[in-house]
Amino acid sequence: MQQPQPQTMATQLIITALLIGLAAGVLSGLVGVGGGIIMVPALVFFLHYTQHQAQGTSLAVLTLPVVILASLYYYHQCQKLGTPIDLKVVGLLCAGFIIGGYFGGKIALSIDQESLKKIFALILFYTAFKMLHWDTLLIKWVKAIF
């Protein structure tokens, strides 16, 4: 009896996945984002993953030490600059992330895909709105009218 041949990944899938990972890695090292902001939408749009599948894949990538080199570089550079990264805070954030990630995953899987996409988009929009300081511009604009 012949053994079944392992499935090989299509070249286009390999290239697309590598490019998504590269973009997420560069942005993660550059500004501290990547998984949720880059990988999830890219997996949905380019690989046609479901929202649940994309979020799970993004989280699975985080289980590997994918950003260890960037983290170590930041750690050493921040020490040199006199603004060290507090490893106790890192540990506390990790503990919270582990617990929160577990319960967040349980909640996400109970929400339908379309609603989850909308929640995800609103969080991205809100974050951009705040980081661009559009909230203060909006308040100034409203105050100028009245």
Q: For the CA atoms, what is the radius of gyration?
A: 20 Å
Question: How big a fraction of the residues is strand?
Answer: under 5%
**Please, what is the oligomeric state?**
single chain
Which of globular, elongated, flat, extended, rod-shaped describes the shape? Answer: globular
Mean pLDDT: 86
Instruction: State the major sheet.
Output: none
Keywords:
mainly alpha; 146 residues; single chain; 77% helix
Q: Can you walk through the features of this model?
A:
77% of the residues lie in helices and 0% in strands. The chain has 146 residues and is mostly helical. The longest helix is centred in the C-terminal third of the chain and has 23 residues. It has a domain of 53 residues. The protein is built from seven helices and no strands.
Write the layout of secondary structure elements.
Layout: H1 11-31, H2 35-46, H3 51-62, H4 68-80, H5 87-109, H6 113-131, H7 134-145
Helix pairs in contact: 1-2, 2-3
Summarize the structure.
The chain is mostly helical. Helices cover 77% and strands 0% of the residues.
